[in-house]
Amino acid sequence: MTAVDHQLVKRFRQEAGDRIAEQRRLDQVNGVPPMSTEDERQYARAVIAQILEEYARTEITAGRTPLDAATEEQYAAAVHAALFGVGRLQPLLDDPEVENIDINGCDQVFVGYSDGREVRGEPVADTDEELIELIQVLGAYSGLSSRPFDSANPQLDLRLPDGSRLSAVMDVARRPALSIRRARMGKVFISDLVGNGTLTPELGHFLACAVRARKNIMIAGATNAGKTTLLRALANEIPPHERLITVERALELGLDQFPDLHPNVVAFEERLPNSEGQGAITMAELVRRSLRMNPSRVIVGEVLGDEIVTMLNAMSQGNDGSLSTIHANSSSEVFNRISTYALQAAERLPIEASQMLVAGAVNFVVFIQRRNSFQTGGRLQRMVTSVREVNGVDGRVLSSEVFAETPDGRVVPHAPLACLEDLIAHGYRPSGTWG
């Protein structure tokens, strides 16, 4: 396979981008409706083919050998990836074993694999300015609305077309930096997580029944622990006739991508303000909006701020069966984390009030953690190690750890379930004895 000249790809991408932008301008002047994303991609393919044909004619005129058909196809794919995809990042995203990509400037690339290896990668751009351009293209074409990335907007979070999560910054570090966390398991089920050791069979059965019993569940864990993957798996236990509304900062869950599992889904994405500071739609506003759209369940991708109060109110006012994720270092820490977020919200809820709200809204907290390779004999492992049932409130949230990890690493039933009869009514058959 011939090596692609990235300078040539950059030149072709610039030409194609200029022609597409000109077509957009002409459509606007002539009152033609803007092209859909898919129409624009198809138009781009035609433009790229035209540019490559012009290049071949130029080469022949100059007495040089033009690109052969296979190489021309490589260039067409590279230019299209540069316009709508992720350019030189594409091979990494195409590798199913790549789990994380961290980039600290165009030539400092670190790739994490699913088996725990960390490898230094090839540069993804020739300059930091080109890396910023690449991120700007991604911001323009990913998500529901264009997201700027420049000195006025130095932070960017978005979901790539393959479901991976990208976070980028500039002007707050010496060089532009980005991290990509791969969505290696798109359509994932509880059985998959039992198969790879994330869940024990008993715990998987318990969680499936808890979802079917419409229990409100918060999934807690550190960064990159596997919270979103577990949330997807739990959501796939929801019957297909239910109407789901998901609320996220950047589209990531992708439940609406699988109509065979969830035919009735509305996916909300937070909208950032424009350059004048106008037009922002916050997570809290979206959660409130979701309650007016006849949801069977509301799923909040990640709680990071003042949306917590709105979400807990939703959970306690009849929207049973809601799911969410939150950052925490243990299952017991979740309640204090929620109180901290509630204090920062517009409502300024005092700790006692937020603890009462939690007790009336949350049924279970599921804690998932990532085990480093040295803890698991050389392989990376994510495990659910604790489940807490909320039992009430007495100044603080009262909870019992119904599943806990033993000293030898097994996760077993630990305390009696207060809602056992309800779960049994939805198919739960406890196979262990409570410790």
From TrEMBL:
Residues 148-351 form the Bacterial type II secretion system protein E domain. The keyword Oxidoreductase does not apply. This is Protein kinase. Pfam families: T2SSE. Belongs to the GSP E family. CDD domains: VirB11-like_ATPase. Keywords: Kinase, Transferase.
